[in-house]
């Protein structure tokens, strides 16, 4: 005969795991919305707990700190964005204008899906050296990808005559920036499509033969 105590344990364990997952997701959602509304510095653990509907000690137990919450959100962003496939398509593409459009589309996707987290990261970096270095790492990675892309334009003879590869990289890196997207789309009200079309045209004029 089966042990009634043992037969109930797997169910109880699964239920606890589900509750823990729901709590984690509620805290992350609350933190993300508050970071967007108030900024990273002005958001407190108490406010996050209140919005998530959990106790303050629970937030500390799951994430240890506000830094831990933002770090988790950023890790999820990088995993969920799945931009590697688009970048591989960009590098394999032989039409230079199509390459430029794909490069702009990557920035658009990142900003549409996680512009609020990028703002939070930059804000956190003003007072937190670890997040400041995280931001620098992201920018170094972004620039490295652009350098490799611009190199393909040079190798295939698409880069505008007289334009040095390093200068082309500077131009592209600055124009597909978080700041320009924010100014045009967030502040000026451009649509994502309008941003993508204009920036592709502009980069083609500046970089291509």
Features:
209 residues, mainly alpha, Arc Repressor Mutant, subunit A, Tetracycline Repressor, domain 2, 2 domains, 81% helix
Topology at a glance:
Elements: H1 4-38, H2 45-52, H3 56-63, H4 66-81, H5 84-92, H6 96-125, H7 129-155, H8 165-175, H9 178-187, H10 192-207
Overall description:
The protein has 209 residues and is mainly alpha-helical. It has helices at 4-38, 45-52, 56-63, 66-81, 84-92, 96-125, 129-155, 165-175, 178-187, 192-207. Helix 1 crosses helix 2, helix 2 (45-52) packs across helix 3 (56-63) and helix 7 packs across helix 8 (165-175). The relative contact order is 0.10. The model has no long low-confidence stretch (mean pLDDT 89).
Summarize the structure.
The protein is an all-alpha fold and 209 residues long.
Distance between the termini: 81 Å
Please give the share of residues in helix: over 70%
CATH topology term of the largest domain: Tetracycline Repressor, domain 2
Number of strands: 0
H and E string: HHHHHHHHHH
Catalogue the unreliable spans: none
Structural class: mainly alpha
* Total domain count: 2
Alpha-carbon Rg, integer: 22 Å
């Amino acid at each position: 005969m089966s042990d009634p105590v043992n037969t109930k344990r797997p169910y109880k364990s699964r239920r606890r795991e589900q509750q823990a997952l729901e709590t984690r997701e509620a805290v992350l959602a609350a933190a993300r919305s508050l970071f967007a509304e108030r900024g990273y510095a002005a958001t407190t653990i108490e406010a996050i707990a209140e919005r998530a509907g959990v106790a303050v000690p629970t937030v500390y137990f799951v994430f240890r700190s506000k830094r831990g919450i933002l770090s988790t959100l950023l890790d999820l962003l990088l995993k969920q964005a799945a931009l590697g496939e688009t970048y591989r398509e960009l590098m394999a593409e032989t039409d230079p204008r199509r390459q430029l459009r794909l490069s702009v589309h990557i920035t658009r996707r990142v900003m549409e899906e996680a512009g609020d987290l990028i703002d939070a990261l930059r804000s956190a970096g003003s007072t937190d050296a670890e997040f400041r270095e995280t931001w620098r790492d992201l920018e170094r990675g972004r620039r490295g990808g652009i350098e490799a892309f611009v190199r393909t334009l040079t190798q295939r003879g698409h880069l505008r005559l007289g334009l040095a590869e390093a200068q082309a990289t500077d131009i592209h890196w600055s124009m597909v920036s978080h700041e320009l997207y924010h100014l045009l789309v967030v502040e000026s009200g451009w649509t994502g499509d309008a941003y993508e079309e204009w920036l592709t045209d502009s980069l083609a004029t500046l970089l291509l033969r």
